[in-house]
């Protein structure tokens, strides 16, 4: 009989293209993946991997078995979901991921609420960027993802996923305290006397949104500093190196020497929970979404007043 753990290892190698990438996705060592593949070769009596330079290449037999493994693993997940739904208990293990500011701003309270309400539910939480989460929840490597999109870049939901809206998160402009507009209650971007910006790296959702927003105001941003973490961006603002677009969620207390000014019109990102539609019957999925909605409803009032 084929071993599910070995099939999962083979499927991960086929999906990610290498033993190392498969090991990272499954959170095991590369040697553990190699051992599972070697045992699967003995189990099937077929050659599954061939040396290819410094890596390995899957044989045709492995490709065929990996296709069946994908179907088998999906059936196992469906069976587990149906069984949990029949029992009606929030049990088992739930893997959840969120992008950094949601991880900081939502999940400490959400995980606490889940632990209090469902002590028999085991949870594993990761901080992940939205693009990686989308891939992992689609492939079944995580059960629930919390992702974001902005006005200019709406999120395309792959077939087979369901989503729930959690929160609309407004962003303000952070400027040095001695900036000429620092005492204003709100501004439009066209009023800024200079265009030196601090933002995340090119290709990220936040970088692309900043370009879209500033250009929509008839200006061309002069990006002078790039940092992916908002606390780093705020420290650079405090140092007088430029201004930054900072969402309110997870922002925390502003450092000394920084002012946050609301912008007209309000730039807003939308935050969602995503899960595989086939797993929606799991009580654990429903419980996690309910907890996230509860926490986000409480946050919405706080963020509105920030």
TrEMBL record:
CDD domains: PBP2_LTTR_like_6. The keyword DNA-binding applies. Transmembrane segments: none annotated. Residues 2-59 form the HTH lysR-type domain. GO terms for molecular function: DNA binding; DNA-binding transcription factor activity. The keyword Cytoplasm does not apply. GO terms for cellular component: protein-DNA complex. It comes from the Bacteria. PANTHER family: LYSR SUBSTRATE-BINDING, TRANSCRIPTIONAL DUAL REGULATOR HCAR-RELATED. Belongs to the LysR transcriptional regulatory family. This is LysR family transcriptional regulator.
């Amino acid at each position: 009989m084929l071993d599910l753990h070995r099939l999962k290892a083979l499927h991960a190698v086929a999906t990610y293209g290498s033993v190392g990438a498969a090991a990272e996705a499954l959170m095991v060592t590369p040697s553990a993946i190699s051992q599972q593949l070697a045992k699967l070769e003995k189990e099937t009596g077929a050659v599954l991997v061939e040396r290819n330079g410094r890596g390995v290449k899957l044989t045709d037999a492995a490709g065929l078995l990996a296709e069946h493994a994908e179907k088998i693993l999906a059936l196992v997940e469906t069976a587990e979901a149906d069984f949990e739904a029949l029992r009606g208990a929030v049990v088992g293990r739930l893997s959840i991921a969120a992008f950094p500011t949601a991880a900081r701003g939502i999940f400490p309270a959400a995980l606490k609420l889940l632990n209090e309400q469902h002590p028999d539910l085991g949870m594993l939480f990761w901080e992940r960027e939205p693009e990686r989460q989308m891939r992992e929840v689609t492939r079944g490597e995580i059960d629930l993802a919390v992702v974001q999109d902005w006005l200019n870049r709406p999120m395309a939901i792959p077939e087979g996923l369901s989503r729930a809206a959690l929160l609309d998160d407004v962003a303000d402009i952070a400027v040095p305290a001695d900036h000429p507009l620092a005492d204003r209650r709100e501004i439009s971007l066209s009023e800024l006397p200079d265009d030196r910006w601090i933002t995340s790296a090119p290709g990220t959702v936040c970088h692309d949104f900043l370009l879209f927003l500033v250009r929509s105001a008839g200006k061309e941003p002069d990006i002078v500093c790039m940092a992916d973490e908002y606390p780093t961006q705020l420290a650079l603002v405090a140092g007088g190196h430029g201004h930054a677009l900072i969402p309110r969620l997870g922002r925390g207390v502003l450092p000394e020497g920084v002012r946050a000014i609301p912008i007209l019109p309000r730039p807003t990102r939308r935050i969602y929970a995503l899960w595989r539609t086939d797993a929606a019957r799991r009580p654990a999925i429903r419980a996690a979404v309910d907890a996230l909605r509860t926490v986000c409803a409480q946050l919405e009032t706080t963020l509105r007043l920030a």
